[in-house]
């Protein structure tokens, strides 16, 4: 009889990196899928569902992504005030003028699990509208040099 043991990673076995993703000129949906894969850890060979295996992701130039078609005026973001008639909607163009970071955060949050793990993973995403970020002490690397086939 052969006994096979299943590998289940422990928190001390996981190595996390800080990855910088430049959003300039990239499609919003494709960018969000790459970011969610990095946060979930699906790019690692030891990926295990239900375990926090992912890297920290820093997104710079969040206001310079592109969308196809007429999404700038046809895509809406909704918020609710819980009062009668309190549903407010904003177009993607207006949201980019007010808070460009929110657009990428919202897209990535939709691709993460809707559980406690997903809420914990969402804290690994840092989005900045401009090219500068305050995370130089973590020695981040770009996504192209770390994972060229992603």
CATH homologous superfamily (4th level) name of the domain at 16-69 and 98-146: Ribosomal protein L13
- The average pLDDT score comes to 93
Instruction: Label the CATH architecture of the domain at 16-69 and 98-146.
Output: Alpha-Beta Complex
Q: Work out the number of β strands.
A: 6
CA-to-CA gap between the ends?
40 Å
**What kind of sheet is the major sheet?**
4 strands, parallel
Strand content: 15-25%
Strand order of the largest sheet: 5-2-1-6
Count of DSSP helices?
6
CATH topology of the domain at 16-69 and 98-146: Ribosomal Protein L13p, Chain: A
Protein structure class: alpha/beta
Poorly predicted regions? none
How big is the Rg?
A: 18 Å
Name the overall outline.
globular
How would you describe this structure to a colleague?
The structure is a single chain. The protein has six helices and six strands; from the N terminus they run E-H-E-H-E-E-H-H-H-E-E-H. The protein is α/β, with parallel strands linked by helices. It has a domain at 16-69 and 98-146: Ribosomal Protein L13p, Chain: A, CATH 3.90.1180. Strand 3 (76-80) and strand 4 form a beta hairpin. Helix 1 crosses helix 4 (100-109) and helix 3 (92-98) packs across helix 4. The radius of gyration is 18 Å and the shape is globular. The mean pLDDT is 93.
Concise description?
By secondary structure, the chain is α/β, with parallel strands linked by helices.
Keyphrases for this structure?
6 helices; alpha/beta; 150 residues; 17% strand; globular; Ribosomal Protein L13p, Chain: A
Q: Helices and strands in order, then pairings?
A:
Layout: E1 18-22, H1 28-40, E2 56-60, H2 71-74, E3 76-80, E4 87-91, H3 92-98, H4 100-109, H5 116-122, E5 125-127, E6 141-142, H6 143-146
Parallel strand pairs: 1-2, 1-6, 2-5
Antiparallel strand pairs: 3-4
Helix pairs in contact: 1-4, 3-4
